Amino acid sequence: MNIKDMHYDFKKKVNKIDSQKYRNLRIPEIDWVLNEAAELFVKMIAEPRLRTNLGFETSQRSIDDIKNIVVTDEPINVTNNIVSLPTDYWYFAKGKVIMEKGDCKGVKGKLDVRQHDDDFEISPFDNSSFEWREVNGVFNKDGIKLYTENFTVTQVLLSYIRKLTYMHNAEDFNPAGYNLPSGTTLVGSFDCELSEHTHKEIVDIAVLITTGELESQGYQIKQSKLKMNGLD
Predict the structure, then answer these.
(1) Of 8, 100, 128, 230, which sits most exposed with the smallest number of CB within 10 A?
(2) Which structural domain range is residue 32 located in?
(3) Within this chain, do residues 129 and 156 fall inside the same structural domain, yes or no?
(4) Are 141 and 123 part of one and the same domain?
(5) 27-46 vs 3-15: helix axis angle to the nearest 10?
(6) What does the CA dihedral 225, 227, 231, 232 come to, rounded to 10 degrees?
(7) Across the beta sheet with 152-162, what order do the strands follow?
(8) Are the CB atoms for 6 and 192 separated by under 8 Å?
(9) What are phi and psi for residue 29, nearest 5 degrees?
(10) Model confidence pLDDT, tens digit, residues 140-194
(11) Which of 147, 162, 177 is the last residue of a domain?
């Protein structure tokens, strides 16, 4: 589905067949809720609040759902043991490090992301080790802080889920486009970046959000549909 198809599907499901109850919803408003739905969709797969599994790659379906926004082994230089995150960074997937110690250069290792309350700095079994090819790191306001002993990390190869580009159908609203509340001007159109088989589910989420806000009688029906898809 392209963005125009998603708008059609959204309007059909919100208005019901042969009805124009909510015909006053404008294109920028529909764009906004479709983007909110896509963001929620990714969050439920990539990083649910209550996790009962390891990572987003729990099945081939979940891998396929968001594969288009997974960045693999993005090289990032390290400055003063700080890894600055890319501007499009959203969720961490995996990290590798390039280390050097003395004459040993270009050695690859693993980045272990730790919690702030872990005792890895004082534990002889959990601290960073050049020999064991493991480097501890924690997330902070500057990015990822690395903890090293007697060796240097020169680069990190970061795999992560990036932010979605804002999908929109601005050209059908106004040939000159329209402005987001942030002031960004959108022109033309931009389709949803997620795999096409997710688009109807994203529309369903958008419809659920909209009908809930409008207190539609169909709210419970649409919520049940999402439960059937495992997206409640």
Answers:
(1) 230
(2) 3-64+164-228
(3) yes
(4) yes
(5) 100
(6) 110
(7) 70-77, 152-162, 89-101, 104-113, 134-140, 143-147, 82-83
(8) yes
(9) -70, -40
(10) 999 999 999 899 999 999 999 999 999 999 999 999 999 999 999 999 999 999 9
(11) 162
| Predicted confidence (pLDDT) per residue in 66-100, tens digit | 999 999 999 999 999 999 999 999 999 999 999 99
Q: Could you tell me the CA-to-CA distances from 61 to 6, 45, 176, 229 in Å, in that order?
A: 21, 10, 39, 12
Query: Of 131, 162, 193, which one is at a domain's C-terminal end?
Result: 162
Question: Helix count (H) and strand count (E) of the chain?
Answer: 5, 9
> 167: buried, middle or exposed (CB in 10 Å: 19+, 13-18, 0-12)?
buried
Is residue 94 within 8 A of residue 71, CB to CB? The reply is no
| pLDDT-derived band at 228, boundaries 50, 70, 90 | very low
The DSSP secondary-structure symbol of 2 reads -
Crossing angle (nearest 10°) for helices 27-46 and 199-213: 110
User: How many domains in the chain?
Assistant: 2
Q: In the prediction, which pLDDT does 116 show? A: 78
Nearest to 194 by CA among 44, 86, 8: 44
Global pTM reads 0.84
For residue 60, the model assigns a pLDDT of 79
Q: In terms of domains, do 88 and 196 share one? A: no
